[in-house]
């Protein structure tokens, strides 16, 4: 070999390939950051292989023995015992979730390869040889003994490299063959399983051939093609995970709303959901916003609520970090915000945050010509006290709605009555009404007890108004239940019975017992109406999905069809059916595909597109997981 070729293959090629891997690593880290397992493993592969490539020039140029021996041992150990299991694990993440035990098992299986190379490459090696001398550069390479008993260092090390290559080839060929068998050629460029295993096959073959021929530059060059194919595969995986996450976010937000506002509160569940969304777990304040307009009701106008959410998000970005604020669509005219508000009332940070709400109200007024009623609850140290902050925010918002042009009201700024007398417990009443409106029978009793603790003292000062107040309370309870979706005719009929019984009540203790029964019955009517209405909505959604499963149907399309918000639809669908929207739609499409496979002669690819899948390979994988057979096997006579 000429000196020029030696320089080219041992210095220039690994240096250029190493730079490619380094820049590819930088590209991934800064343009496609992700929490996907495949992404993390691929980044490790890029770092490790760039070190492996850069190590070759260092191995030759740093001087004679023992430096070439030390560096080559490190390089090949990284390749055989670190990079080989990493790339195998990356490919396997697409097929199923890998347990920690499985990952450790693959790493331990590859560890002896690297150790064997290091041991046998070191035994008997006593020096190095001059590989080249040109342009002031002197290159020394490791002189591993060849055909020298008893260690046979060169033969064993070449064997280790070949075994590593065959190991990669074995794992990748199985999955590549399966991918080729189940997907048509036109779908291969977008098939992440095909791309990553094709990349591994290219590297494995070049590694085997290059090692046996002792032409290392062969797999230095092939590694670039492998990186491009594997990188494309990981990008497809990141995009798929991002799309799935986007579908999941509204459901998680809806679960947080339910966790904070309804009875099924769980501190652990709430913390886990906040972590899942990348939010801090010390959020301490709830803010309730309602969009108002005198001209007409905006319910059903999803574009307005989405526009307002966009304004809220943009304005709060200037005052809060992304992980210190969570925006929750509650209904088509209401938004909730959970944030971290400093406890010190005079702090600059708190002033900036409250100022942001002024900016939000002004921008909504200019953009949509609608007012905002903003209620802010108190800040608490414990995350479980967000429920209290939520109720306070609702009370403050209702107070803000009474203002002429709406406004921003902190619960502490609501004028307190004279503290020297027992005043009517307005706040406690509003908290009770909110629970009745939501059908939260579990907490209505405790809220009623809190209300009556102050109501008894109030009646002790003014006993003559007991029956008047009971009349007013029952009417308020019924109004709240109607607002919560209760049957108005049934509730109005109940008023007559309730009011007739008030004439028999002579003291607060008897009143409390009576109202406990009334509250249970009225809140229960909201729950029953909710269940009935929910079933009707979900049945309508199912019929729409049945009629439109062939199209690229999204949960937003179905939610719009039945006139509810997308996030609420996801939560309601899961609650009523016990499965997610995506799983239900997939099952529906698979059932339709099974029928077509048995009753038509259409190709599997055509059937995949006919039932709504836009990728035949994805259809094949989904069908196998759901049915236990491939589509081709299912179609065969049995």
How does this structure look, described?
- The protein starts with a helix and ends with a helix.
- A hairpin with a 2-residue loop joins strand 4 and strand 5 (334-339).
- The protein is built from 22 helices and seven strands.
- It has 638 residues and is of the alpha+beta class.
- It has a five-stranded mixed sheet with strand order 4-5-3-6-7, sandwiched between helices. It has a two-stranded antiparallel ribbon with strand order 1-2.
Q: Enumerate the strands of the largest sheet in spatial order, edge to edge or round the barrel.
A: 4-5-3-6-7
* Amino- and carboxy-terminal Cα gap: 63 Å
Shape: elongated
| C-alpha Rg (nearest Å) | 34 Å
The CATH class assignment of the largest domain is: Mainly Alpha
| CATH topology-level fold name of the largest domain | Rhopdopsin 7-helix transmembrane proteins
Low-confidence stretches: 294-300
* Multimeric status of the protein: single chain
List the helices and strands in order: HHHHEEHHHHEHEEHEHEHHHHHHHHHHH
Average per-residue pLDDT, rounded, comes to 83
CATH architecture of the largest domain: Up-down Bundle
Task: Please count the helical segments.
Answer: 22
Structural class: alpha+beta
**Percent range of helical residues:** 55-70%
Give the percentage of residues in beta strands: 5-15%
Number of E-state strands: 7
Tally the structural domains.
Answer: 4
The largest sheet is:
5 strands, mixed
Structure keywords:
638 residues, alpha+beta, Rhopdopsin 7-helix transmembrane proteins, 22 helices, 68% helix, 7% strand
């Amino acid at each position: 070999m000429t000196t020029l070729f030696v320089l080219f293959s041992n210095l220039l090629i690994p240096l250029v390939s190493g730079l490619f891997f380094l820049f590819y690593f930088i590209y991934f880290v800064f343009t496609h950051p992700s929490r996907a397992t495949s992404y993390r493993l691929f980044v490790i592969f890029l770092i490790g292989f760039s070190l492996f490539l850069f190590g070759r020039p260092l191995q030759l140029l740093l001087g004679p023995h023992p430096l070439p021996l030390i560096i080559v041992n490190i390089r090949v150990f990284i390749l055989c015992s670190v990079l080989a299991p990493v790339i195998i694990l990356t490919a396997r993440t697409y097929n199923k979730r890998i347990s920690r035990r499985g990952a450790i098992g693959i790493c331990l299986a590859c560890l002896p390869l690297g150790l064997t190379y290091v041991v046998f490459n070191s035994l008997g090696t006593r020096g190095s040889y001059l590989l080249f001398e040109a342009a002031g550069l002197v290159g020394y390479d490791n002189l591993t003994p060849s055909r020298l008993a008893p260690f046979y260092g060169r033969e064993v090390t070449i064997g280790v490299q070949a075994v590593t290559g065959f190991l990669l080839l074995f794992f990748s060929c199985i999955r590549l063959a399966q991918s080729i068998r189940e997907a048509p050629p036109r779908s291969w460029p977008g098939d992440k399983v095909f791309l990553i295993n094709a990349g591994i096959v290219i590297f494995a073959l070049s590694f085997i051939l290059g090692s046996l021929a002792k032409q290392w530059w062969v797999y230095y060059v092939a590694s670039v093609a492998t990186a491009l194919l594997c990188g494309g595969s990981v990008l497809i995986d990141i995009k798929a995970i991002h799309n799935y996450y986007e579908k999941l976010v509204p459901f998680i937000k809806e679960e947080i709303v339910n966790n904070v506002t309804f009875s099924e509160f769980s501190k652990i569940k709430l913390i886990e959901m906040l972590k899942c969304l990348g939010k801090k777990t010390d959020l301490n304040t709830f803010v309730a916003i309602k969009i108002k307009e005198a001209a007409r009701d905006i319910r059903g106008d999803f574009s307005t609520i989405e526009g307002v959410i966009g304004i809220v998000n943009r304005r709060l970005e200037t005052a809060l970090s992304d992980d210190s604020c969570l925006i929750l669509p509650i209904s088509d005219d209401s938004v909730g915000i959970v944030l971290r508000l400093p406890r010190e009332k005079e702090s600059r940070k708190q002033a900036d945050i409250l100022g942001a709400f002024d900016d939000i109200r002004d921008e909504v007024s200019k953009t949509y010509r609608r007012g905002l009623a903003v209620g802010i609850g108190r800040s608490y140290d414990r995350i479980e006290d967000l429920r209290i902050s939520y109720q306070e925010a609702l009370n403050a918002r209702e107070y803000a709605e009474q203002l002429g042009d709406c406004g921003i009201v902190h619960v502490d700024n609501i004028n307190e009555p004279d503290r020297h007398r027992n005043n009517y417990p307005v706040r406690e009443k509003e908290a009770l009404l909110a629970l009745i409106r939501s059908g939260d029978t579990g907490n209505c009793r405790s809220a009623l007890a809190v209300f009556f603790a102050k109501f008894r003292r109030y009646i002790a000062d003014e006993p003559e108004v007991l029956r008047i107040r009971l009349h007013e309370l029952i009417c308020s309870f019924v109004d709240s239940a109607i607002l919560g979706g209760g049957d108005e005719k049934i509730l109005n009929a109940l008023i007559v019975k309730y009011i007739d019984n008030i004439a028999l009540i002579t003291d607060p203790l008897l009143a409390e017992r009576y109202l406990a029964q009334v509250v249970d019955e009225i809140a229960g009517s909201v729950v029953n109406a909710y269940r009935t209405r929910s079933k009707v909505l979900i049945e309508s959604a199912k019929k729409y999905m049945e009629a439109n499963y062939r199209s690229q149907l999204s949960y937003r399309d179905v939610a719009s069809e039945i006139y509810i918000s997308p996030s609420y639809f996801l939560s309601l669908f899961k609650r009523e059916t016990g499965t997610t929207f995506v799983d239900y739609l997939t099952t529906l499409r698979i059932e339709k595909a099974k029928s077509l496979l048995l009753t038509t002669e259409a190709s599997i690819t055509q059937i995949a597109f006919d039932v709504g899948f836009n990728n035949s390979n994805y259809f094949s994988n989904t069908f196998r997981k759901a049915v236990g057979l491939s589509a081709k096997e299912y179609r065969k006579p049995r």
